[in-house]
Structures are given as structure tokens and as C-alpha cells.
Amino acid sequence: MIIKKYIVKDMKEAFVRARYELGSEAILVDQRNIKQGAKLNPFKKKYIEVTFALEEDKNQVKTASKAKSDEKGFSNSKKEIKLNMDCEIAKDKLMHFCSLHDKKPEDLSLEEKRQFLEILLKDTTFNQKKDLSKINILVGPTGVGKTTTIAKIAAREVLANKNKVGLITIDTYRIGAVEQLRTYARILNIPFEVANDVYEMEGKLKSMTDCDIILIDTLGMSPNDDKKLSEVSKFIDKCYLDYKTFLVISMTTDKKAIDNILERYILLNYDSIILTKIDEALDLSNLWYILNKSSKPIQYLCNGQDVPNDIKEVNIDTIFELCEGDLIL
Ligand SMILES: Nc1nc2c(ncn2[C@@H]2O[C@H](COP(=O)(O)OP(=O)(O)O)[C@@H](O)[C@H]2O)c(=O)[nH]1
Ligand SMILES: [Mg+2]
Prior knowledge:
This protein is an alpha/beta fold. It has 2 domains: 61 residues; 197 residues, Rossmann fold, CATH 3.40.50. It is built from 11 helices and 11 strands. The chain is flat, with a radius of gyration of 22 Å. The two termini are 37 Å apart. 40% of the residues are buried. The site of magnesium ion has 5 residues, from helix 5.
């Protein structure tokens, strides 16, 4: 049994931190109000001390990612990898690979399947360098998960990489959008600013120059909405430091719509792609489709609503795990 105590401002923060460190199987065992600060100080801050417990595996300690991966199919277990391909290019490559090995897809060994995956990814943007910049702007259609993904990235950078992170939103259109991000910033105890117009943008960025990483949330927009695209573009132009633009696409989008998004968002000069809602997709065909279609690398894969756990950096292991179980390649 692992027991861990957290001193936090509220229960939401406690759950985010416990889930991140111990995984979703951690159980809340105790919570009590405490005050921190000098004994006679009337302005002592109120905190909650929250205790979580996690049952250990018989043989190994469950890490957060392992606990999570068991749940969402990102597991390392040696399950059969299904190679039912939905994407023509990937299918052709599989047929070629199988004929070289004189085997049917279902007879490939695990090792051969991994080899094939490496071949499949070799000629794509897969191995391009993927880093965060000082400033990172997430753009994309409405409801794809931009704000949620910003919270996931921010939490990873703060909790795992110990970076100083700041959040800015320019999404003042949607009711609740500002509050959504403000809440995450409060939980993570990091600076948060709203840029109401382009003129405010430079000042907001300057107020965060001591941050290692600044994440900027934008309004969702249809790829056909020229007016909104050019509006967001004006905000991006104000980023005077090193910056990177991420195009966020949901894996549940149909291929025609993906074509349109990839093409239209070129107006915003995006550098990299983030794929969300992998958990809701029936198969991984959109992943292969985008890998073959776009010249931009895919940086993160998001597989659920849970902040901060449901995000993975793209590498061969992540993809290999994704292909296992019921997620079909
Ligand atoms: N299933 C699933 N839902 C997600 C994922 N990412 C975000 N969501 C959900 O999608 C909805 C819209 O997310 P939001 O971040 O507000 O999207 P935005 O409009 O692009 O900022 C919310 O209900 C999120 O919880 C994901 O990877 N998988
Ligand atoms: Mg949003």
C-alpha cells in the first residue's frame, strides 16, 4: 500500500495531483483542514491535508501511467496486435511487408509487427524533432479539446518537468471559456491572463517573460471562417519571442473535413499537430492518414478527458501500445 499526503488549496487540486502521481486507482482516505503560516499570524492561509492510498501490485508498484494505460488500452501487455488497416497507404505497405515475410498479417510475430510499424512511420514526419517553444499557441476547430489539452500540457510541464508555466487565453467569445482555463491555472497555481484584444497581447506576454513555457488558448473556429482565422492570426503576430503553433484535430473528424482543416489552417502557419479523442475513434486510420498527408509532425496524442493523464508524447512505443487491444490500426 502506498500512502501519500498532499497539502492543497482545494479538493480538485488534490485529485489532480493524486491522479497524476498515483493513477486513477488511488483512493481518498482522509481530508482535514489545516492552517499554514506563523503561529500568531491572523492571515494564516487555510489548506487541506488530503491523504490518498494506492494498493500495490503483488509484484510491482503501479505507476500513474501504467494504471492509466490499463484503463485506456495503452498497455504493455503482449496482446494480439490487430492490423486491420483502414488507410489505403498503410494497407499497401502491410501487404508488401507480408509478402516479403511470406506470411499473412495475422501470422506476423510481435517483433515483426513492431518492425512493420517502424517501416510505416519511417517515411513520415514521425521522427521530426518535437519540442515545446517558449510560447505555444493551440488553434483548431471548436470543441476539439484545445483548452483541455492546454491544461494537460501545463500540468505535465509543472508537475513532471518542474517548468514555470503561464497561461493566456484569447478565447473571450464563448461563455465560460475564460473560467475553464482560469480554474486549471488556479489548481496548478500558475499565472493566467486574458488578452481581450490584439493590443493587450504584447503586455500579457511581457508579464510572463519569466515563465519557461507560455501556453496560449484560442477561440475555436470553423476552418472556413476567414474572419476568425485572420483575427487569430493577428494575435499570433504579436508573439515577439520564439513561438510554435499547434493545430488540434479530433480523431473523430472525417477525412474530407481533415483535408479541409489541414489546408485552411495553413493560413495560421501551424508547426505541429495534436490529435485528440483517440479514445472515441473507431480505429487509427486518421492517424495514418494525417501522417501521410501532412508535412507537419504530430506532437501529442490525447486519449480521454482526464486532466492531466490522458496525453501522450508521440513515439514508437506510444503508437505500438495504441495498436494493441481493441484499438485497430
Ligand atoms: N473523449 C475525449 N474527450 C476529450 C478529449 N479532449 C477533450 N475532450 C472533451 O471535449 C470537450 C471539449 O473540450 P474543450 O477543451 O473545451 O475543447 P475546445 O473548444 O477545443 O477548447 C470537453 O468535454 C472535453 O472534456 C479527449 O482526448 N478525449
Ligand atoms: Mg476552448
